[in-house]
């Protein structure tokens, strides 16, 4: 079963290559417009399997404001009533889906462009929990404002991969997306300042480069030094939500919710998403010689930190801030993820796989495909 999943995962990823990732379109098929007041999926916008619950307003003074990105796509018209450029600001996921939709609109109606009449909102013009306040929602029309097109526009938005689409008004359609962390638009990461260990002493993770040697653990659970082959994700400027896990011996590791930590178990170690760690679980922490030291988790909390770094090592493991972690995220099996990443580790031996910023294209393809082919028990939710 597992081998079949890996082969399917890898084969499709190779075919995908470095692109935008997968949307819901799977080849030529007949698409039907949404009807007025219809939404897709047929659940509430804030359901976890749609765009998810709101996480709080973003203002220009918030650290999270730096996570919003401007969209200057010339194939999209922005109404910008406020004259502040706010309608151009959105999350990276929203931007990617919007740009995909813009192409679909031009293909569907030559000479017509996508039009954004509302993006990020800072003027309190929506309901209290609106995703517009987080840059996760857009209200859309076509540039010709032909209302007869809006049902098909809504369908094209579904096809472009928006997580919730609502033919809300005769005057526009409403689209929204999940948070970055909930879908892994970024891989599992550690923040700036997290410490790794080299043969020459500790080093901040943001100063690590491919080819460095860092402390990790081998398959037998013993500590060993291993080579960093590339970065699955590297973004020094983002501010993200992290989970901070503290053990009884004082060791504290901070990582993104979907990152896999490796915990002590009767037969060695077991993996767990950081979000799922519970008080009483046992971290494996740096010990003496080559032996890991187990310590019970006594505290877990959510924090926001700057920077996101996810080094990939040859062993697939890494010791960060004295605790053992997998190099992988989003997929709930360390061994499956390690197998799937084998071609990336192999490529590093003969070509440069350095990532300047963002998620490595290979990892992004695998994570996107995993959303479609892996059983739910393997996936972060």
Q: Note the run of SSEs as H and E.
A: HEEEEHEEHEEHEEEEEEEEEEEHHEH
The CATH topology of the largest domain is given as Endonuclease - Pi-scei, Chain A, domain 1
Helicity range: 10-25%
Task: List unreliable stretches of 5+ residues.
Answer: 1-28, 369-376
Give the number of domains: 2
Which CATH first-tier class of the largest domain would you pick? Answer: Mainly Beta
Q: Which whole number gives the mean pLDDT? A: 83
Q: What is the structural class?
A: alpha+beta
For the record, give the distance between the C-alpha atoms at the N and C termini, rounded to a whole number: 22 Å
Tell me the number of strands: 20
The CATH architecture assignment of the largest domain turns out to be Beta Complex
What fraction strand? Answer: 25-35%
Please identify which CATH superfamily of the largest domain we are dealing with: Hedgehog/Intein (Hint) domain
Major sheet summary line: 6 strands, mixed
Strand order of the largest sheet: 1-7-8-6-5-3
What report would you give on this structure?
The chain is an alpha+beta fold. The protein is built from seven helices and 20 strands. Strands 1-7-8-6-5-3 form a six-stranded mixed β-sheet, covered by helices on one side. Strands 11, 12, 13, 16, 17 and 20 form a six-stranded antiparallel β-sheet that branches. Strands 15-14-19-18 form a four-stranded antiparallel β-sheet, with helices on one face. The chain is elongated and about 70 Å long. The chain starts with a helix and ends in an 8-residue tail after the last helix.
